[in-house]
Amino acid sequence: DLQKMVDQVLNEWPETLKGYSYRVQVYRSEEPNAMAIGGGNLYFSSGLLDVIEESVELESIVAHEIAHVEKRHSLKGFRYEQKRQGAVAAGTALAALAVIAAGAEADDAVLLTGAASKIIDYASIFVQKGHSRELEQEADILAQLYLAKQNKNKKSMINILDKLVTHNISRD
């Protein structure tokens, strides 16, 4: 039972828990995936459960998702996105003001504002991907700490991550 596994992981968590009440939901999708929503909601796709070959693979995914909740990654991501959207809006407005202040022709103003907008969009995408990767790495590290505390080989975690990567590459 998946809820029992979540409870087991929580009982052996390597850090002090924040006190969330964890709930598990399995949804139908061939896509192997798992996600955590702030507050303790964990979602696992039926496709993920289909590719699991041993319990430690699932346990490592559970630990990874719990790490997202415990480290408040949803809240951090939300705050980051708010800042990013604010920076994009401010940058576009500043670019438009600079063009107007310079007294550029209407066609030049459109080109310059468009170029500034593209630069800002690229920068924000670059920063966002870096931020997301950082949170995933933190969740991976905590899951590995959990597995080490349980004297379980992290090879199972590597195996399931390889399966997920292979699935994503093969569908592109």
How would you concisely characterize the structure shown here?
This protein has 172 residues and is mainly α. The chain is 71% helix and 8% strand. The model is unreliable at 126-131 (pLDDT under 50).
Could you explain the architecture of this structure?
With 172 residues, the protein is mainly alpha-helical. It has helices at residues 2-11, 46-51, 55-70, 73-101, 106-149, 155-171, and strands at residues 23-27, 34-37, 41-45. A 3-stranded mixed β-sheet has the order 1-3-2. A hairpin with a 3-residue loop joins strand 2 and strand 3. Helix 1 (2-11) crosses helix 3 (55-70), helix 3 packs across helix 6 and helix 4 packs antiparallel against helix 5 (106-149).
Radius of gyration: 21 Å
Strand content: 5-15%
Mean pLDDT: 81
The largest sheet, given as strand count, sense and whether it forms a barrel, is:
3 strands, mixed
* Terminal residue distance: 33 Å
Helix content: over 70%
Strand order of the largest sheet: 1-3-2
Contiguous low-pLDDT stretches (5 residues minimum) are 126-131
Q: What is the helix tally?
A: 6
Could you give the order of the helices and strands? HEEEHHHHH
Query: What is the 3D shape?
Result: globular
Tally the beta strands. Answer: 3
Helical/strand content category = mainly alpha
Short descriptors:
172 residues; mainly alpha; 3-stranded mixed beta sheet; 6 helices; 8% strand; globular
